[in-house]
Recover the amino acids of this structure.
């Protein structure tokens, strides 16, 4: 009984540990050169990246931030991971004729399993969808990274950046826009930013996410 009492807190801690999925991409000479997204089964997430601020800039930046996935996206991510058998089988298509689009890696961890897969182009539809989803989230986070930098150091660059962000959001190329709401809110509330950019930041914040594909 005493031993069971001692072991119970440990067992509860293990059971309480959230499952995590990490997607990372490394692509030298691109912007960014590296990024990773880690999402827990409770929706909490961490994003980090490194590389040039933009393709036409020599300024470099290491960026990281925490955010929370919407419930629908979090559920979809873990549903797709289950369909992909938690990345324990063959993931890469093996087609050497396909162009290199970055070294990608998916990692799944929970209290019972730990598995990962490295790939260029996935053969499984579930991993294809998961890759597209994570890349769309990363695109959003990179807008957040650049907007944070430009708002602090180069406000004249905000105009083109916000235009591009709004256009991509309208084309459903971005996901989880709420993750970068803090910097958009800061831009909107900054009287030193031109009104057209403040208005565009507000429009982006008010955009509704498109439904996730099944």
């Amino acid at each position: 009984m005493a031993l069971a009492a001692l072991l119970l807190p440990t067992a509860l801690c293990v059971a309480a540990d959230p499952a995590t999925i990490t997607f990372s991409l490394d692509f030298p000479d691109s912007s960014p050169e590296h990024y990773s997204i880690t999402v827990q089964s409770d929706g909490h997430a961490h994003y980090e990246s490194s590389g040039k601020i933009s393709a036409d800039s020599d300024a470099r930046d290491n960026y990281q931030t925490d955010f929370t996935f919407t419930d629908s996206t979090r559920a979809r991510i873990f549903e797709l991971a289950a369909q992909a058998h938690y990345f324990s089988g063959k993931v890469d298509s093996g087609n050497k004729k396909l162009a290199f689009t970055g070294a990608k890696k998916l990692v799944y961890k929970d209290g019972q399993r730990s598995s990962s897969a490295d790939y260029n182009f996935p053969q499984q539809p579930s991993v294809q969808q998961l890759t597209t989803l994570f890349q769309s989230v990363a695109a959003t986070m990179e807008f957040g990274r650049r907007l944070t930098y430009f708002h602090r150091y180069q406000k004249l660059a905000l105009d083109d950046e916000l235009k591009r962000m709004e256009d991509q959001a309208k084309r459903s190329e971005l996901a989880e826009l709420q993750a970068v709401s803090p910097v958009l809110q800061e831009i909107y509330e900054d009287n030193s930013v031109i009104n057209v950019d403040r208005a565009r930041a507000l429009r982006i914040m008010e955009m509704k996410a498109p439904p996730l594909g099944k």
About this structure: The first helix runs from residue 2 to 16. Confidence is low (pLDDT under 50) at residues 1-6, 10-15.
